[in-house]
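User: For a benchmark we're assembling, each entry needs the component sequences followed by a predicted structure for the full assembly. Here are entry 17's components. Please fill in the structure.
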Amino acid sequence: MKFIKWLTNIDRRIIFLLMIGAVLVPMLFTIPIPFEVGEPVQNAFNAIDTLKPGSVIMLSVDYDATSYPECQPMIVAITDHAFRKDLRIILLGHIPTGLPLGQEALERGAAEYNQNHKAEYRQAVKHAGEELKRHTAGYQESLKSAAAEFDQEYTPRHQETLDSLVSDYLEKVDSAAVKFQKHTFEYWEAVKYAGEGFNRHAAEYQKRLEGGVREKNSGYVRILERAAAEYDKHVTEYQEDLGHAADQYLKRYGIDFVNLGYRPGVVAIIVGMGREIRDFYHKDYQNINVDSLHMMADVHNYDDIATLVSFAHGTAVESWVAYAGARFGQQIIGGVTGVVAPDLYPYLQSGQLAGLLGGLKGASEYESLIKKKGLASRGMPAQSTAHILVILLIVIGSMAEFALDISKRRGT
Amino acid sequence: MNLPTILGIWIAATLTIAIFSFLYRDNPLYKFAEHLYVGVSAAYWVIFAAKFTMQDMLVSVFADNWQAFLETGSRTGFWEAWILVIPTALGFLMLTRWFGPKVGWLSRWPIAFTIGLGAGLGITGSIQGILLPQVQATILPLWTPDLWVIVANILLFVGVISSIIYFYFSRPHKGLLGGVSRVGITFIMVSFGAAFGYTVMSRVSLLIGRLYFLVYDWIVGTVDFFKSLL
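Assistant: Structure for entry 17:
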């Protein structure tokens, strides 16, 4: 009887220790526990998976560090999925302390994507460089033949200068590619800077070359100018090839994703964005003018946003549903903590939510759909053992109470 | 992993353990971590308010529009710059409550403005965005070829009607009203059970997140860091 009494009043610290053990054991020794993907998560996945490449999705960070274990795996998984599908992402948030978590997910997602496509990108850059070299060799050949034709002196110095200009430019581009793998915005700044430097030096070189030659033989200069124009064309083609390679194999800030930052006034902003996003977000979180961000050129309001995903630990999803969904017909997906999820099921049933990810389980289901084992999938075995422990404790406690009650009635 | 990252992880791990120490009993280490969290969060909010509200939505917008007016003579720029005086003034009026009841009543104007705006938006949003679509989603056919759909729709219908009747307090819950409201409370209890289950899952997830951090980021990360130094 003493033991049964003890069972009804176990010291809470023992329960805490049991709970820590129930979580740690499956975490340290991987225990595979199967689970099925529910319809709400499958619908969320389908809503994103069926979007056309280039479509824009808006991710709203409406949680902060207190919900990191539940919401962060969701935003990481959806970002990963969106990048794979070549969707463009707009990030914003209504909780300032949570916004850096969204930025972290985007940066990691982009870096991972760029890392995975590094080989293809390098190959494309190398190919573009080889093409440029092939064409510039032709340029040098035509210079040589012009010099021979008009008996001008084409010194090795001229060729060396051209060669060094081209190789210097290529080196700068390559070093920028290596240095800024994770920061593609800076990479493009560096490429632009190298390109500007190259053009400046090339122009000066041509000026110097012309100065001595033009007076002596105008025919030679014409050929020289034609060759220079050809050369410019090839450099432009090279830069375009680099651009295509980057479009295909890199995810870059301003082109594939942007972070608009935080603005106060949740409902007013949700309603106002139905007219024009720039009314509230005319600059992004880095203070860059939104109009100067390439991907925002054709994005003005909800008509330009295919799907909106709100990651929330409060009532933000309901606000999106009530205003963006009802008033502007915006398709909405919820990615919420377990505490919030039951409140959102009515919106699923009414079709106001296109899909729902609830808690760690929802995140792990999404990870299984995109075939990527992330934080949520690694945590799910621990979640299951912890639930088994809770059920056991409830059953044992209830049975002990029941036994005590019976013994009291019997007077023992 | 570099030194600043590992230092950050150590600070985070120490604070996590300090917070967990409350599970044993209240102690100064827990109090320190708690106060630090409140202080850092408040500072973070202040910086965000200064940057994203004061700077981006007031100072910067005023400067841009005023610049546009000076450069192009744009009347829109002029008005869009000076209309910001109104929210600024309302903001300052909020501060009048610091100076006692003689001028403190002025703070009611911005409060009235906020309540008016919130109520206007809230009422339309609630009716258009929640009430009507939810009512519409409840009006479902009770007879379809699919047996499970019939069962689900009847359950939904009975659940909604009986739960609403449970919250009807103008008559005593006796007789038929009492019976239906008892069915309603059963549905409400089931929903509480589901919510509680989800809450347990949510709280366990938070524990998993922190323990995962302690095991892999802190312990394994530190070991890897020292291995990389050797």
